[in-house]
Specification:
With about 550 residues, the chain is of the alpha/beta class. It folds into three domains: about 10-240 and about 355-410, FAD/NAD(P)-binding domain; about 245-350, Succinate dehydrogenase/fumarate reductase flavoprotein, catalytic domain (Flavocytochrome C3, Chain A, domain 1); about 435-515, Fumarate reductase/succinate dehydrogenase flavoprotein-like, C-terminal domain (Methane Monooxygenase Hydroxylase, Chain G, domain 1, Up-down Bundle), CATH 1.20.58. It has helices at about 25-35, 50-55, 70-80, 85-105, 140-155, 220-230, 260-265, 290-305, 315-325, 325-335, 390-410, 435-450, 455-480, 485-505, 525; strands at about 15-20, 40, 60, 110-115, 120, 125, 135, 160-165, 165-175, 175-185, 190-200, 235, 240-245, 265-270, 310, 345-350, 355, 370, 375, 530. The strands form five sheets. Strands 1, 2, 8, 9, 10, 11 and 18 form a seven-stranded mixed β-sheet that branches. Strand 10 (about 175-185) and strand 11 form a beta hairpin. It binds flavin-adenine dinucleotide. Flavin-adenine dinucleotide binds near residues 21, 215, 374 and 375.
Length: about 550
């Protein structure tokens, strides 16, 4: 049994399936599994809060006769820079159209194009790295629409119970298998034990590890940290995607300007008005994101500017407003009219390509534990994510994981009793400033030393600082009663440490990992995943 006994609490009723997270991965799993048993969904804030909700661009899936699975597979492999698992890519791409129909059946309203005399079909947009228009979207708030429809369906389902403000703290193990999780009620501070025959990690990404990110506050890598502490394998955490274009504005908390704008002709300019992507890559502004982010980073450092510009003002204003209503409205709130002037933008941490290692069916290396969505690692993304493949992966893998969990007929061991959480001698902290300071220092360290452009020296410096911070946080964690902030701080420290360890291991540059001290891609030695697993003596 994993030992975390720190506060005696009543055992919550167990369910068949326990889902941690209420983004697309968690809700798809819940809706599929609910046909076969009781599902409990724990989510650490309001159920609506997730990366899913903020996705603007859309979901990549082959949906037109002029496109093909082969082309989608090829584009994914090219972006993945030699690390994608081809059979995973082929399976996910092939499953796409059927899973999109699931979403439609659950009430997701994608944007359609209506041309006189023609059948209604999905309006497809194009994004960086795609050689065809294949991104389905719901205007420019696709994630919000997906989240709305799935939550409505899940809330109405008799077999699904969604518990908000319930933050999973650690997984519960019995004889090497996962049998549930401990969760903190962030409102009351109490800990509850949730048991299930199958547990799904659907906790999303870890953008909050970096100072600048377009991820919401919930993205603190909890799933990766919990899985690692429990002894599951994690992989490829050195590959973190930075979105090239988030709004640069003193009052904006990292508002993302969708790649779809560049898909519709927006140009990147330096502050002097020069279009700098032409000559950097044949696809110019639609080059893969790592190339665009590095080019922006280079221009900003070379010219000493705090941002570059994204300009779509040459397009028809009425069309721009109709195509991007959400972005138009938000920018207007900051006094920017995108139909008349360029938008100031900077790169920000966006997507975690690595995660908890899983099979195509979402199985992790621990029996009873599944992972899907951004916290999982199937091998679809390789060393870089092709735009809009992440919602697709979450959708497909969560569906497969549910089918696998249902079919496995695993049962909780008969008469199994887990110890309730015991807070021992932990007291209330009167020094919350320690949490805020450490949180800030980790994020700054990661941004400065483990960001878009890395070097051996920067990584070593980050490693030393994080080791020190981790020791301090560990001590604090065991001395004081748990709060949501403390749980998240411990998790971002763990994930930051794993990103640095993975980045130091990879002695080459590939995809999103760019190290000035080893610029070449070395296929002979490094064309493989960076897999990490906790050794028994490593700090939990
Ligand atoms: C601004 C933005 C734009 C994007 N645009 C696109 C796009 O156009 N196309 C695309 O394919 N992808 C896009 N992405 C990426 C995509 O949205 C995510 O990869 C995807 O939504 C992840 O889904 P998920 O279900 O894995 O996680 P999430 O949607 O992040 O859900 C995670 C859930 O887990 C909960 N949680 C976390 N930790 C715990 C815990 N300890 N206990 C309980 N609950 C917990 C969270 O509160 C949340 O409910 C975008 C991301 C962002 C941030």
């Amino acid at each position: 049994m994993s030992a975390q006994p720190r506060a005696r609490q009543a055992l919550a009723a167990s369910s068949d399936f326990l889902v941690l997270g209420s983004g697309i991965a968690g809700l798809v799993f819940a809706l599929k599994a609910a046909a076969h048993g009781k599902v409990t969904v724990l989510t650490k804030r309001a159920a609506e809060e997730s990366n899913t909700r903020y996705a603007q661009g859309g979901i990549a899936s082959v949906a037109h006769a002029r496109d093909s699975f082969a082309a989608h597979v090829r584009d994914t492999l090219v972006a993945g820079a030699g690390l994608c698992k081809q059979q995973v890519v082929e399976a996910v791409v092939a499953d796409g159209p059927a899973r999109i129909q699931d979403l439609v059946g659950w009430g997701v309203r994608f944007t359609h194009r209506a041309e006189p005399g023609k059948r209604h079909e999905f309006d497809l947009t194009q994004e960086g790295g795609h050689t065809a228009r294949r991104v389905l979207h719901a205007s420019d708030f696709t994630g919000q629409e997906v989240s709305r429809a799935l939550l409505k369906k899940a809330r109405a389902h008799a077999n699904i119970r969604i518990i908000e403000q319930a933050m999973a703290v650690d997984l519960i193990l019995h004889r090497g298998a996962c049998v549930g999780a401990y969760a903190l009620d962030t409102a009351s501070g109490s800990i509850t034990t949730y048991m299930a025959r199958a547990t799904l990690l659907a906790t999303g990404g870890s953008g909050k590890v970096y100072l600048y990110t377009c991820n919401p506050d919930v993205a603190t890598g909890d799933g990766v940290a919990m899985a690692w502490r429990a002894g599951a394998q994690v992989a490829n955490l050195e590959f973190f995607q930075f979105h090239p274009t988030t709004l640069y504005h003193p009052k904006a908390k990292s508002f993302l300007i969708s790649e779809a704008l560049r898909g519709e002709g927006a140009r990147l300019l330096d502050k002097r008005g020069r279009r700098f992507m032409v000559g950097v890559h044949p696809m110019a502004e639609l080059a893969p994101r790592d190339i665009v982010s590095r080019a922006i980073d280079h221009v900003m450092k070379e010219q000493g500017d705090e941002h570059v510009l994204l300009d779509i003002s040459h397009q028809d204003p009425a069309w721009v407003k109709a195509r991007f209503p959400g972005i138009t409205r938000t920018l207007k709130g900051y006094g920017i009219d995108l139909t008349r002037e360029p938008i100031p933008v900077v790169p920000a941490a966006h997507y975690q390509c690595g995660g908890v290692v899983t099979s195509l069916d979402g199985r992790t290396s621990l029996p009873g534990l599944y992972a899907a969505g951004e916290c999982g690692h199937t091998g679809l993304m390789g060393a870089n994510r092709l735009a809009s493949n992440s919602l697709l992966e979450a959708l497909v893998i969560a569906g497969r994981a549910a089918a696998d969990a249902v079919a496995s007929h695993r049962a909780l061991p008969h008469g199994l009793k887990t110890p309730a959480w015991d807070s021992g001698r932990a007291t209330d902290s009167n020094d919350a400033v320690v949490v805020t300071n450490n949180w800030d220092e980790i994020r700054r360290t990661m941004w400065n030393y483990v960001g878009i452009v890395r070097s051996d020296k920067r990584l070593e410096r980050a490693s030393r600082r994080l080791a020190m911070l981790k020791r301090e946080i560990h001590q604090y964690y065991w001395d004081f009663k748990l709060t949501g902030d403390l749980v998240e701080l411990r998790n971002i420290a763990t994930v930051a440490g794993l990103i640095v360890s993975s980045a130091r291991r990879r002695r080459e540059s590939r995809g999103l990992h760019y190290n000035l001290d080893c610029l070449k891609t070395d296929d002979r030695r490094w064309r493989h995943d960076t897999v990490l697993q906790r050794r028994p003596w490593e700090m939990k």
